[in-house]
Amino acid sequence: MKKYASLFMILLLLVACNKSKKAVIPEKPIGWKVIETPSTASLRGLSPITEQIVWASGSEGTWMKTLDGGETWETGIIDGLDSVDFRDIEGIDANTAIAMASGQPAVIYKTVDGGKTWAKKYQGPEKAFLDGMAFYKNTGYVIGDVVDEKWMVLETKDLGDTWHELELSPDGPVGGGSFAASGSGILADEDNIWFASAGKDSKIYRSADNGFHWEKYSTPILQNEDSQGIFSMVRIDVDGIVAVGGDFTQADSSTNNSIVSSDKGKTWNLTSGKRPSGYRSGVEFFSRFGWLITVGPNGSDFSTNRGVDWTRFSEKGFHAVKVDHTTTSIWASGAKGLIGRLIY
Question: Which DSSP symbol is given to 237?
């Protein structure tokens, strides 16, 4: 009995010690570790899967992949399309990825052999311009600019093998579109789809029933010119969404460039504290530390209070920022083959 009592006491002590150890949250990010890649393409598509496996895509038909945390990269041109800009990519695993080209032509490709071959799964009409892609399990959505007074919303139910345009896509203004700066102007979960329109009418469109019915909500983001509006969105919890943007012709302007919602995108407020330090094209939530990270051409900012206040932490400019599927690392991509990993 004494033997078992001693073991029991040891177990209690171990449990007590573990409870007493609190996770240490860094005060702020240190910066970005810039990773050398073999590409000079502008990389707007980014999809980290783990700390080791990361997919990227961009101009000149470029796809890239690392399996060792950025030490080495595989790269190539998707189906010989060396004049096409693949502005979004969704990595599924080390072998499988779905890449979206915005326009001329507007196409979606898929690889199941690690990038060796790519199969075309969708090609849009001549007027089509695709802006971003979001997946929830096997279901994915793509938002495209308005064609014939309807937003182009594509759906797949089989992980990108087949795509169709939603018959009940919402009405849109003539010439309306969404920004394809980082592929993150669209969000999706089990029932919901959100996407942001751009320019002089920068609003949030939301469907709570997989695209059967749509609501449209106004936002206070900067939206006086075609170069202004919402460029990226991220969910921070069940009800909270943060969106960033500004004016891509004024990289250093912080005017009305960050907004927050606490009711699933129905109502929006401008950031009440210090705003991101310039136009921002990508935003991500790092749940491990409760950080929001946002990037743009003139640097990077972070927030620890749900987007109420932002602090600049890096001068390095990027197009896109994404957290890996295991939520243990944050990556960014940008011009001239630039890839970075957040240091903290």
Answer: S
Round to whole Å and give the CA distance between 142 and 151: 10
What phi and psi, each to the nearest 5 degrees, are found at residue 201?
Answer: -135, 60
Question: Contact, 129 vs 103, CB < 8 A?
Answer: yes
Angstrom CA distances, 54 to 5, 69, 165, 170, 327, stand at 50, 7, 29, 34, 13
User: What secondary structure letter does DSSP report for 175?
Assistant: T
Query: What is the Cα–Cα distance from 134 to 186, expressed in whole angstroms?
Result: 6
Domains and CATH numbers, the chain: 32-343 (2.130.10.10)
Rounded to whole angstroms, how far apart are CA atoms 63 and 254? 32
Q: What global pTM score does this model have?
A: 0.92
Provide the token pair at 128: 């089509």
For CA atoms 27, 339, 293, 98, give the dihedral sign.
negative
Q: Kindly report, residue by residue over 256-308, the tens digit of the pLDDT.
A: 999 999 999 999 999 999 999 999 999 999 999 999 999 999 999 999 999 99
Measured CA distances, 163 to 89, 153, 259 (Å): 15, 10, 32
